[in-house]
Amino acid sequence: MNKKWAVKRLTINLTSGEAEKLEKYCSITGRPATDVIRELIRSLPVEEALNVN
Question: Does residue 3 lie in a domain region?
Fold first, then answer.
């Protein structure tokens, strides 16, 4: 494993439907699930969520 990515390891629980959707997306795009999940996390609107309170 590339050490620059070994900062934090997460385990997530997915429903079978969620897992199938992720697997299908990865199959279509040819991308690994880790990359897809990282991209989704990076796209989270953190600043907007902080301004809600």
Answer: no
Whole-model pTM?
0.72
Say how far apart CA 35 and CA 5 lie, in whole Å.
11
CA-derived radius of gyration, the chain: 14
Q: Are 31 and 23 within 8 A, CB to CB?
A: no
Is residue 40 one of the residues assigned to a domain?
yes
pLDDT in tens, 6-49: 678 899 999 999 999 999 999 999 999 999 999 999 999 987 77
Using alpha carbons only, give the angle 37, 15, 35 rounded to the nearest 5 degrees.
10
Could you tell me if residue 37 is inside a domain?
A: yes
More confident call, 31 vs 53: 31
